[in-house]
Amino acid sequence: MVSVGSLALDFDSFLVDLDGVVYVGPSAVPGAAETLTALTETGHRVAFVTNNASRTPQDVADHLMSLGVPATPDQVLTSAQAGAGMLARQLPAGSPVLAVGGPGVAAALAAEGFTVVDAVTEPMDPGGDDVAAVLQGFGQDVGWRALARAAFAVSRGVPWVATNTDLTIPVPGGIAPGNGTLVAAVATATGRSPEVAGKPFPPILLRAADLSAGLRPLVVGDRLDTDIEGAANAKMASLLVLSGVTGVLALWRAPLTQRPDAIARDLSGLLEPPRRVSADGDGVTSGAATATLTGRLLAVDAGGDPVGGVWAAAHLLWQLDVEPDNAVEVAARLDQQVREIEVRGTGT
Q1: pTM across the whole model
Q2: Annotated active-site residue in 10, 12, 19, 62
Q3: Are residues 212 and 291 in the same domain?
Q4: What is the pLDDT of residues 261-277, one digit of tens each?
Q5: Pick the catalytic residue: 12, 17, 225, 227?
Q6: Which letter, b or e, does each residue of 46-72 get, where b requires 16 or more Cβ atoms within 10 Å of its Cβ?
């Protein structure tokens, strides 16, 4: 339920990342479905914005529905769709485009009216690919042959769009190589750099804002270098959730362009009051949590709210522009406390 004083009431629409925010691999992040259902039932607009280009909007919506999240394909915007849109502004309809990645890449190109040449599933002509452009996105089946095929075309100088350059992606087993790692292989082989469609570049978020038709959007994500920096580039407010790849130390070390406007343990933080911070002569407080610096040593008293402790310490360290000698140890302790809250929240 969206109650009086909830963070969600400060906004009318939400541009929500997926991996690490709504789900990790096939499984839902605890509280995500309940939160998104509550937002939808109270009339808030939700768009799902993902840099993962491997699946179609229909596949993503089906996955979300299977997790109890109300979603339709029209609410989903992938970086493959954004990338295909970029190429549509450069090439005539019907142009042959090499699709490197999962089914979402080929589907996005087909939706824009291109002739799709799939680097993974279609054999290459002995004379080589006569394509007008390359769209490269993530796909679990992308291997050396597909990357080599992309490099051959890119070396000829055709337009090359990468759906995103995320170096990693969270999966149930841990953190795995993302599309940026595969893009780097082609870039190294060709000496070229692609245009990039996804976050942190603003076009995908601006298009998502149009999709949600909101006037006060909030970008919600788990990555500083894509979601949060993307929000800053698009001049939108941002919420960092600690359910994905970003840990406490990375947040404390974030440059100005990657500092969120708010943080929460997970999406359920949208249904809670926002964490305010205040500074005094002794340090910074956020709710019951306090952070102080004595010499080069950081002390955080979470007061029962480790996320508040993380937030108080972040503002203290950003204000002082310093990394304490014990930052790694204190961050690790708070990371553990945040994870323990998540476990208690699932009833396990």
Answers
A1: 0.86
A2: 19
A3: no
A4: 999 999 999 999 999 99
A5: 17
A6: bbbbbbbbbbbbebbbebbeebebebe
